[in-house]
Amino acid sequence: MISLFIDTADKTITVGILKDLNLICYDTMENKNNLSENILNIIKNLFDESNLNINCVEKIFVVNGPGSFTGIRIGVTVAKVIAWSLKKPIILISKLETLASSNTKKKYIVPLIDARRGYIFTGLYNNKLCSIIEDEYVLYDDFMLNLNENYDLDDIEFVSDYDFLNIIKPNIDIPKIVKKHFNDKGVNPHQANPNYLKKTEAEENLIKND
Amino acid sequence: MKDIYILAIETSCDETSCSIIRNGCDELSTIVLSQIDIHSLYGGVVPEIASRNHIENITIVIEETLNKIGLKMEQIDAIAVTYGPGLIGSLMIGVQAAKTLSYIYNKPLIPVHHIAGHIYANNLVKPLNFPLIALVVSGGHTDLIYMKEDYSFEYIGGTLDDAVGEAYDKVARVIGLKYPGGPLVDELAHIGEDTYNLPIPLDDDSYNFSFSGIKSAVINLVHNEAQKNRKIVPENLACSFQNRVVEILTKKTMNALKKYNVQNLILAGGVSANKGLREKFKNLCYKENINLTIPKLKYCTDNAAMIGAAGYYAYKLGKRADLSLNAKASDKLY
Predict the structure, then answer these.
(1) Cα angle value B202/B206/B208 (rounded, 5°)
(2) What architecture (CATH level 2) is domain B128-294?
(3) CB–CB contact B89 A73 (8 Å)
(4) For the complex shown, is ipTM > 0.90?
């Protein structure tokens, strides 16, 4: 069974093709604001390279956030249209979970994405990719305080593409993520949408002014 | 000759739309999902909210467009998409969707300029006759275009500052109308009288327009009256404003027709839905024996049918994009 994995949600883009649980080829690169131009060619090149036709894809795994709003939408739009065209289910993956798949010997992983103005997107995962503190949009200081009170920080690996203190750079493990979600039913492509974890500023202001 | 079916996608602002057009003139199926009610809460289009809505709707809109006439993607000859100008985040959704369809179904991808689309909305009324002059009037454009033949666009004049639609929306705001105010100004103008002394904007021999002056004149007038504790009469102000705007748009357009010795005029863009403008042009063109075409009201605002009509002529001319097509917030057609 051929699966396609797409992650364009943040600074590092990863696209991979899997046969069952084995990664047969993948491409990963820094997102340099040319994602919109490149994404289809990245996907096409991988299929050409592996001598496969995109029509043989049975499952589509797509990272739907949190992260860069534009980045998320590019990946999710492409994934939605592929899934709709091929009439296959689409399985939504958290960006924070992909970061948490990075190799570590520690008990817990905290993935961090800078959400600006002191805020972060984060959560707490164990090394089996189970979510322990649900993904959230939170003040960095508040989150760290809470973590400090309830966990031994030595048990935690902090993973981020951003320059936070004491982090390791992510090294995402696509087969590990796909394995965990392989039997997920997935959703209809029409319902496969981004998970921004944050309202737009206009919506926030509207609520504030009400 | 074999019929050509174009599937077109348009997401440049706050309408998610898909359409299937046969041979550039027969509209077979169109879906337009407007977000106007959502954005009216904010007094204008919020780009991030527009993008969020496009992505939720895009596959639904494509599917419904095909289902309406029982067509399959395999039966489509080419995919046309608005690549710009417009809101970058909104355009992006349509462009990625079109590229993905083009890749999976191995169909040619046709990049269409949004304004070419508005012009070709007229082709859905009757085939364009050339040479023609197009008056493009919208929230972003006020341009006079000379077209010698299909898909050839020569700029002969345009606004030096605000677009006419922008001026309408601003005037709507100062007289207290809700977003989107342009059409409401038009309605008010029809029940009001021309009592306010407003200048005719840029009344010269050029083919250029300027609407920032009359916009400021309206704002100043409203402020001055407020300071004197006098109430403005909104319908009369709307009528006075609309009369000046329509007068200068029609005057310069009719002059251009004479100078270029052209018998065909088309209107295009959102403001071509303006009743005052349509009526005045109909009268003048009847008198001057000019062949006037105006888009159907439903194709004046953004829609994919017009993109499919323009896309057909671009397709015939061999215009193609590859998978690296990108959305462009601004791009010149002429």
Answers:
(1) 60
(2) 2-Layer Sandwich (3.30)
(3) yes
(4) yes
